[in-house]
Amino acid sequence: MSYIVVDVEADGPIPHKYSMVSFGAVVLDGTLSKTFYGQVKPISEEWIPEALAVSGLTREQHLSFKEPEAEMARFHAWLSATSSGRPVFVSDNLAFDWQWINYYFHFYLNENPFGFSGRRIGDLYCGMKMNTGLNHEWKKLFRQTKHDHNPVNDAKGNAEALLKMNMLGLKIPIG
To answer: How confident is the model at residue 135 (pLDDT cuts 50, 70, 90)?
Structure first.
């Protein structure tokens, strides 16, 4: 099993009505050198300018991205090539990021290689500290790569946090 840290940028709050813009993934290993970056063109005419602006991209740029089916197939192939066993989806905001990846995988490829579950980093940290009130503390303590809404950078910062949590005793698969 391989932990894959994923981050998604979108132009609205829900799949289908709005569109995923870009996504990044990092294999949780000692190097964090296995990364994936995908950009997909809109699947909807609806979009929220403020949501798209978070990604630093314009609607015109978003319209020029690759077809979702091809990009999801490329991501699926990358997961197959870089994962040891079944990949496990890990994210800062699991409820947001997973819904996009799950929707796009099922809609375009009829399957989600991650299955139907994942791990939220804040919950792992709270469990490690045995205190559910520490939900966001890990972000300030452990990220090294700046959180800038480039999904690869954001996924990498989250993976760095997981590596530090592992060094502090959290047993998670690294490698």
So the answer is: confident
CA dist 6 and 60 (Å) reads 25
Beta strands 2-10 and 118-120: pairing type? unpaired
Delimit the domains of the chain by residue range: 2-167
Percentages of the chain per state (helix, strand, coil), in multiples of 5: 45, 20, 35
Q: Kind and range of the H or E element at 68?
A: helix 68-82
Neighbours of 6 (CB within 10 A): 27
Q: How many helices (H) does the chain have, and how many strands (E)?
A: 7, 5
DSSP β-ladder status, 87-91 and 2-10: parallel
- When pLDDT is cut at 50, 70 and 90, the band that residue 136 belongs to is confident
CA dist 122 and 138 (Å) reads: 7
CATH of domain 2-167: 3.30.420.10
* Catalytic entry in 16, 76, 136, 149: 149
Model pLDDT, residue 27: 98
**Token digits of residue 98:** 């997973």
Active site residue 136: no
